[in-house]
Every structure is written in structure tokens, then in C-alpha cells.
């Protein structure tokens, strides 16, 4: 890999293995194949909420006009409010046990897995511009791409209502494919020294590894929940 390679191409190549490992986790494969339940999707949405809240708080507070982030930062990508709406909808509809609007915050904390707490801690305690650029790329391009598949399949397999899937609808982006192409072009305009470029690539790999750890924890949690339900039955 040389510095003449575009940043978008370098990110795609560098993260390929970690990306595949995350998206082929047992939790994700079961969820998308219809072998899981609406409760598993709810648990996933719950994990995403504090991650996006941390990412977007840090981004807007410290990096929205940073030279490394300026080209890709776009308020139209913000997901925290949509996630909060979806999580509240899913929890109050009973997909993860009895919940009321007044107890949503408590129940979100109760449902967080250790890997999610580690993810949030990493964002809040270790953030710098290369890290934020890497996580911005991994999370938002993922939402604009594979996230759209997730939304379709969980609606089909588990009858998750559309009002609980607003996270996946980018209302201010009318056409996702041209936007993604433009995002990659914007990435390629960012001027990076070799050392900073290497940091961005490493942090992007780490972002996928954090997601893989989260999926592994969720898989264990859901297995324990299903086992307990089977024993109870």
C-alpha cells in the first residue's frame, strides 16, 4: 500500500478482514437470516444508542471544523435522535421485557453489554482526529450501505414496525448511492501525512473490531436469554 492510493480505497482494503469478521458474526448472521427475534434487534439498537451519542457529541464539540473531518462532517448523518426514538419505541412495545417511557433510560443501561461500555469508553477517552475520521467512515458508510439491508430484513423476519426503524432512514439524503460516492470523493480530498494516514487505517480496523466484540457479547447474551426461556418453558 502506498500513499498514492486514495484514502477511500486504502480504508476499504485495510478493513476488509475486520469488516468481514464483524458482519459474519453468529449474532449478525442469525439476525439477518430470520433465526433470531425482535428482542435481538432491540438489543442491537440499545447498544448503538450510547455509541452514537458519544461519537456525535465528541464530533460536534471538538472536530466538526477540524481539517481531517471538515470534508465529511454533515449534520444530515446524525443518528442519535432517531436512535433514541427507535429504542424508546422498541422498548415500550415490550421487545426486551416490560418497559414504560419513564424507565427507558434505566432499561437501556440494564441491557448494555460490556463490549458496548468498552466501545463508548474508547471513544470518550482516546479520541483524536484520526480516530474520529475512522469511526465516521466505518459507522456512517455502514449505515448507508449494510444498514439498509438490516432494516429490510428485520422488518420482514420479525415484523419490526417502520416507526422503530427511523435510524436507517436518512430523511435529508434523498439518494443514498450518489451520497456515498460523494462521501468517498470527499475522503480522497483530505490531505494526510503518511503517519496520520496509517493512524486512520488502524483506527478503522479497530472500529470494526469493537463492533465484532459487541456482536459477540450480544450473541452470548441472546443465547443465555433463549436458553433461559427454553428452560422456563
TrEMBL record:
Coiled coil: none annotated. One of its GO terms (biological process) is heme catabolic process. InterPro entries: Haem_Oase, Haem_Oase-like, Haem_Oase-like_multi-hlx. Pfam families: Heme_oxygenase. One of its GO terms (molecular function) is metal ion binding. Keywords: Heme, Iron, Metal-binding. Heme b binds at residues 12, 19, 137, 184. PANTHER family: HEME OXYGENASE (PTHR10720). This is Biliverdin-producing heme oxygenase. It comes from Thauera phenolivorans.
